[in-house]
Amino acid sequence: METIGAIATPAGAGGVGIVRVSGKNAREIFKRYFHVDNTEIQPRFAYFGKVTDREGKDLDTGIGLFFKGPGSYTGEDIAEFQIHGAPIVLKKLLENILQSGLARLAEPGEFTRRAFLNGKIGLTETERLNLLLQAETDLQLRVARELTKGKMAEKIKGIRGRLLALSSQLEASIEYPEDDETSNALDSAQENVILLAEEMKTLALTYDRVIHWAEGVRVVIVGAPNAGKSSLLNAIVGYQRAIVTAVPGTTRDTVEVTADIQGLRCTFVDTAGLRESVDEVETAGISRAKDQIELADVVILVWDLEKIMESRKIEKEIGNGTLLIKVQSKADLIDKIPLGLLHVSAKTGYGVERLLNKIRALFDDVDLDHVFLFTERQKKAVEAASMELVTALSFLKDDRTVEMAAAHLGLAGRYLETVIGIVTTDEILDGIFSNFCLGK
Fold first, then answer.
1. Which domains occur in the chain, in start order?
2. Contact yes or no for 438/7 (Cβ under 8 A)
């Protein structure tokens, strides 16, 4: 495989920056661009020295490390240059390495992909690592930490083992139909398949509960023009993020802000006021607002007592499956607020904390002590396996189609194998590693 290289630290200036290379040319790259008094570099030792360009001109000083494969993260030779985090220095070092022809630029997640392909890390561990790298809140960190225990992978392996045993029994009953030991296989097969299908169906549902903790929730603020949506967003985040004026239709595009609500990552989206408009730009904003409603986990409908008909019309556009919170903003200016509306004043801050607590309470039913799925890919694979079991069950009802039942049990096992990485395809791997950053 080609040697790859990339900057392994986030964009922007920092105290330390890392340029990483992996592959057969890593040692040569290390010797060419890192200079130290020692004549022989030992693996897993940290050396202080000079980093230069291809012409030998000094770029910086810093720490150099070399890891010999297969005892490295990727299973290949790795060289790391840990220098000062000035973007121009990191960029020049990487450019010199790539222009030498000894390495090419790594694709997103390619270091970890090689670690997986070389047997250094499992597929579910890879997905857990991606979740950890994106963690911004305590809840996301808790999910990632729980996944280090590997309970989900063990659960899938156990179900797969039971499927294999069941398939073997059915195959034996087909080959030796008169044998006393196999004659009872069909009697118990249906019951076992039903139990396995229910178990996998329950497992698939765990994703829907944990995904909001793992990835956060999208909270979309909608309402009529000038209802107080932008003021509410500013009150939630605590600063002037959205433009607020008394002119209806000020918000023409969506405005997004991410906040940590008691550990829950929430992305609040302010949208254009929903109304009939002939203004081309405003109409585009209204269209985007409606699109955001479709993407929302929670919709906050800012009610306007002066435009009750418009508010009711907007409420009807929100799907029944969407979590809805109705808010009366500008509560400090209203004497009597109807029942069913949460009273909030963006000006005084009254009711804002209660609103946030209500959002947080909607996603407070996850039990991390039990096995759970944490990616949509895993969920779809388990659901597909469950459907194969349902199909197998239909064939088990007729002695003449037992072979078909066994075949579908095998397919169910294959789907489970994709969850834990026993069976993978380029499509699966591309989908997983494309979410990683460069240098990881």
1. 4-122 (3.30.1360.120), 123-420 (3.40.50.300)
2. yes
